[in-house]
Specification:
Elements lengths: L1 H12 L2 H8 L5 H23 L10 H20 L5 H8 L2 H11 L7 H18 L10 H26 L4 H25 L6 H26 L4 H23 L5 H17 L8
Helix pairs in contact: 1-10, 1-11, 2-10, 3-4, 3-9, 3-10, 4-8, 4-9, 5-7, 5-8, 6-8, 6-11, 7-11, 7-12, 9-10, 11-12
């Protein structure tokens, strides 16, 4: 079941780099980041009211603070970075997050890291590199954007660790949805002052895409990922995100008629292999 949730989340996430890259033509990255979070928070609030889930504030929760702080930094770096680099570069560099998760857990959290997880992360990130190899341009004109996307990967690791710890301690879907709602609304509020500094104009098409971005690659994708992350290890949760790279190219092939090259297919196999490896077995290594 966790893999099913993870694959569905990745399918939704597979559209967000392209949508954000398009929106940055008219709007500043911080504005896009804040608005998609507000839309996602509103969608979750409606869902919670309909299902009669309890809405509560958890501002003193250490894991929530880590998740919110990491989300704010991630969204700033990711969205602004896409103004200066390609969607392919952004996908590859942000998906370095599993390596940062391993380093943080081992060096700072004092947790045992499985040898299986290290191997799985290497395989999956290699798959990500192969998938975007034909379009990647590291160190070119978009170096500034590339550096921001690396920072996005590091901050995403913080979000994964904070969220995973909170989710494994949760007892129900209602708790997990409430935690995610708090992450979205707190992050959006913190980003609002920056959004006001960088005003932008949005067309009717931009508004439609923003709503789409807030509902599917944000609210729905994160909810599905939370349901998966509550059932797997922190590293496994991180690697589930790399599946989104596969669906980015699958969506491009289905809806835009683009070809799936050998490198994309080989990379997809490696990514799936990495996810499966880390989701099985109990061998551990310090």
């Amino acid at each position: 079941m966790p893999l099913v949730f993870g694959f569905l989340a990745a399918f939704c996430w597979g559209t967000h780099s392209v949508i954000v890259r398009y929106l940055t033509g008219d709007m500043h990255g911080v504005t896009i980041a804040a608005l998609r979070l507000y839309i996602a928070a509103a969608a979750l609030l409606v869902l919670m009211k309909v299902l009669r889930f309890q809405v509560s504030s958890r501002l003193s929760d250490r894991n929530l603070q880590i998740a919110v702080g990491s989300t704010v930094v991630n969204y700033i770096c990711f969205h602004i970075g896409l103004e200066y680099t390609s969607a392919s570069n952004a996908m590859m560099l942000e998906n370095t997050a599993p390596f940062f998760v391993l380093l943080i857990l081992f060096l700072f959290a004092g947790e045992t890291v499985r040898r299986r997880d290290i191997i799985a992360a290497l395989i999956a990130v290699t798959g990500v590199f192969l998938t975007v190899l034909q379009d990647i341009d590291i160190g070119g004109a978009g170096l500034r954007g590339d550096m921001l996307e690396i920072a996005a990967g590091l901050s995403w690791a913080g979000f994964i660790i904070g969220s995973s710890r909170a989710l494994r301690a949760s007892a129900s879907t209602a708790e997990r949805v409430n935690f995610l709602f708090n992450v979205f609304i707190c992050s959006a509020v913190l980003l609002t002052p920056l959004m006001l500094i960088y005003p932008g104009s949005a067309t009717s098409g931009d508004v439609a895409l923003l709503i789409l971005l807030g509902l599917f690659p944000t609210a729905l994708a994160y909810y599905l990922w939370y349901e998966a992350a509550a059932r797997v290890s922190t590293v496994s949760a991180a690697l589930l995100f790399t599946l989104s790279v596969i669906f980015t190219f699958v969506n491009a092939a289905v809806f835009l008629g683009e070809d799936l090259s050998f490198y994309i297919l080989a990379g997809a196999v490696l990514i799936v292999a990495g996810v499966v490896i880390t989701s099985t077995g109990n061998e551990k290594s310090t």
